[in-house]
Amino acid sequence: MLNINHLTKVYGDKKAVDDLTLHIQPGEIYGFIGHNGAGKTTTLKSVAGILQFDAGEILIGGKSIRTDPLACKREIAYIPDNPDLYDYMSGIKYLNFIADIFGVDAKARQDRIRQYADLFELTGDLAQPIAAYSHGMKQKLAIISAWLHQPKLIIMDEPFVGLDPKASHLLKGMMREVCDEGGAIFFSTHVLEVAEKLCDKVAIIKGGKLIRSGTMEEVRGDDSLEAVFLELEGESC
Questions:
Q1: Rounded Cα distance, 175 and 169, in Å
Q2: N or C, which end of the chain has less CB nearby within 10 Å?
Q3: Alpha helices in the chain, H assignment, sequence order
Q4: pLDDT per residue as tens digits for the range 152-206
C-alpha cells in the first residue's frame, strides 16, 4: 500500500527526515510516534505530495508520488494537524467542492455526507460558514471530507487533537473499518496510549531517524528504548 524508501528531506543544514524506510500493508493501522519536531509532519507531507523531498522514493499502490502525483492523490486523503479550510465557504459547499475534485457522483456524496455528518452531529451546522466553526468542528469536517472519496490510504497528523471523546471514539471505529475493507491508515501521534490501543504496527522516529518499528509489543519489548518512552510519556502529560 505505502512504501517509503530511504526518504530524506533537508532544511538548510538540518536533515528533518534522514534515510527513512517504512512499509505499510493493506489492512494496517500504522502509528508514527515521536516527540514534537521529530520529523513526523515532514514525512506525512512528503507522502501526501505536499512537500518535495531530497532523496528516496515514496510509492503508493506501486505508483510514485514524485513522478505520478495525480494518480497517487486519487488514492489517498490527508488530514493535517490544523485543518486549513476555506472559511468563506459553508460546510456543505466545502464537502461538495471536495467531492467534485475527486469525481464523487451525486448519490454517493449525498449518502456519505448524510452518514458522516449525522455520525459527528454536524448536520445542523453544514449551512453555516466554516469561519464560525470551532477547531473541533473544523476537524470533524476535515475527517468527513477525507472519507468522501473512499481513499485506499488515509494519512493523518495528530488526528485526535481537538476532538471530544465521543468524536475520537467514532474516528477510531472509522479507521478500523477502512482497514477491514483493505485500506490502510498512517497517522502520527506523540501519545503512546493512543498507539497502544489502536495500532497494528508503530514506528518511532527521533531526530529524523527511524529508530524502531514493529508491533507495539515488539517495540515495547525493546529495553534500549526505555528513555525514548519516558520522554514521550512526559510530553503526553
A1: 10
A2: C
A3: 40-47, 69-74, 91-101, 106-119, 135-147, 165-180, 192-198, 216-220, 226-236
A4: 999 999 999 888 999 999 999 999 999 999 999 999 987 778 888 899 999 999 9
The tally of CA atoms less than 13 A away on the side-chain side of residue 15 is: 15
d(CA 81, CA 167): 16
Q: How far apart are CA 112 and CA 194, in angstroms?
A: 27
Q: In what order do the strands lie in the sheet with 63-64?
A: 14-24, 2-11, 55-60, 63-64
At 68, list the grid cell.
505520478
How far is the C-alpha of 214 from the C-alpha of 195, rounded, in Å? Answer: 12
| SS3 label, residue 121 | coil
pTM for the full predicted model: 0.91
**Per-residue DSSP letter, 1:** -
Give the model confidence (pLDDT) of 70-96 as tens digits. 999 999 999 998 888 999 999 999 999
Residue 202 in contact with residue 214, Cβ under 8 Å?
yes
Average pLDDT over residues 54-68: 95
Amino acid at 91: G
Provide DSSP, 31-93.
EEE--TTSSHHHHHHHHTTSS--SEEEEEETTEETTT-HHHHHHSEEEE-SS----TTSBHHH
Which residues are 120's β-sheet partners?
Answer: none
Give the C-alpha separation, 113 to 82, whole Å: 21
Do the beta carbons of residue 193 and residue 181 sit within 8 Å?
Answer: no
Residue 129, sorted as left (phi over 0), alpha (psi -120 to 50) or beta, turns out to be beta
